[in-house]
Amino acid sequence: MNKDNAKVAIVTGASRGIGAAIATRLAEDGFTVVINYSGSAGEADALVEAIEAEGGHAISAQADVSDPTAVARMFDAAQAVFGGIDVLVNNAGIMKLATVADSDDALFDRQVAINLKGTFNTLREAAKRLREGGRIVNLSSSVVGLYQPTYAAYAATKAGVEAMTHVLSKELRGRNITVNAIAPGPTATALFLDGKPQAVIDQLTKLAPLERLGQPEDIASAVAFLAGPDGGWINGQVLRANGGII
Ligand code: NAP
After folding, report:
1. Is the C-beta atom of 139 inside 6 A of ligand 1?
2. Which residues, listed in sequence order, are joined to residue 214 by a DSSP beta bridge?
3. What is the pLDDT along the chain (246 residues), one digit of tens a residue?
4. Does ligand 1 lie within 6 Å of residue 65's CB atom?
5. pTM score
6. Which helix (H) or strand (E) holds 241?
7. Is there an atom of ligand 1 within 6 Å of 243 CB?
8. In the beta sheet, which residues pair with residue 89?
9. Taking the CA of residue 107 as centre, how many other CA atoms within 13 Å lie in the half-sphere pointing to its CB?
10. Taking a C-beta distance cutoff of 8 angstroms, is the pair 13, 43 a contact?
11. Whose CA is nearest to atom 41 of ligand 1?
């Protein structure tokens, strides 16, 4: 049993980047946090230590979100250790960019497996298990709307995530559970920065009227709003957190 009776949040892909900032913020807000990761065990365990050092509660949980058995096992473990689950943040994701003509099957299939099916896998478990009053926050992207060249497969997975957000918010009628999505714009993490020439980064940095890149903490603040008491009347919505690019 969760010793403080704190609400319990699973954050997928929380070892690095935006997910790590979300886990840190939710722990600061009093949630007990399950820090999911697929490969970065060292970073996930370091984050658990950092949260505990600040007086928060967290555990790490390895599970590739594209594997439905592993996802079910993670939910089983969280329920067994903490007695229940209140919040799911579907943050795990990858981005592989290429024009449609240059995209191979692996590029398409891997993004669908992690971003779309991975989100479905955790949503299915959450739909069955989340406690009354729970919250689900999915990570989409502002590329749904911008639709730039080279983003076809990635944007398609995120458009699918938005579709599932709307549908599930209605399916959970009567349980006082909200389902929303946050759609970040360019945010300073490995997913965005790796492999981009500096000139492209500079150009995308200036795209927003606020003229800077998003920081992981900007996105964590928006997630914390939807997961916390002030976000309770927001349901079935997509909130673009991007400094105004679209
Ligand atoms: P990131 O820095 O690359 O971090 C990705 C995280 O996802 C890591 O913790 C990684 O953990 C985890 N992950 C990857 N594949 C996984 C899998 N199969 N199962 C479980 N965990 C997995 O990415 P980010 O920028 O923080 O992105 C987080 C989310 O925001 C993604 O959904 C992304 O599409 C979305 N987003 C990002 C931006 C941006 O500009 N950064 C903009 C819009 C939307 P391991 O290392 O352990 O695999």
Report:
1. yes
2. 187
3. 455 679 999 999 999 999 999 999 999 999 999 999 999 999 999 999 999 999 999 999 999 999 999 999 999 999 999 999 999 999 999 999 999 999 999 999 999 999 999 999 999 999 999 999 999 999 999 999 999 999 999 999 999 999 999 999 999 999 999 999 999 999 999 999 999 999 999 999 999 999 999 999 999 999 999 999 999 999 999 999 999 999
4. yes
5. 0.98
6. strand 238-241
7. no
8. 11, 137
9. 17
10. no
11. 187
| Rounded Cα–Cα distance for residues 181 and 231 (Å) | 12
Q: For each of the domains in the chain, give its residue range(s) and CATH number, in order of start.
A: 8-185+217-238 (3.40.50.720)
Buried b (16+ CB within 10 A) or exposed e, 28-46: ebebbbbbbbbebeebbbe
11 close to 91: Cβ distance less than 8 angstroms:
yes
Q: Among this protein's residues, is 151 annotated catalytic?
A: no
Ligand 1 pocket mutation pick from 110, 191, 245 by most atoms within 8 angstroms of CB: 191
Kindly give, in sequence order, each residue whose CB lies less than 8 Å from that of residue 245, ignoring residues fewer than 6 positions away. Answer: 142, 146, 185, 186, 207, 208, 209
User: Distance (Å, rounded) from C-alpha 181 to C-alpha 90?
Assistant: 9
Q: How far is CA 215 from CA 143, 212, 244, in A?
A: 17, 9, 14
Cβ proximity of 237 and 181 under 8 Å: yes
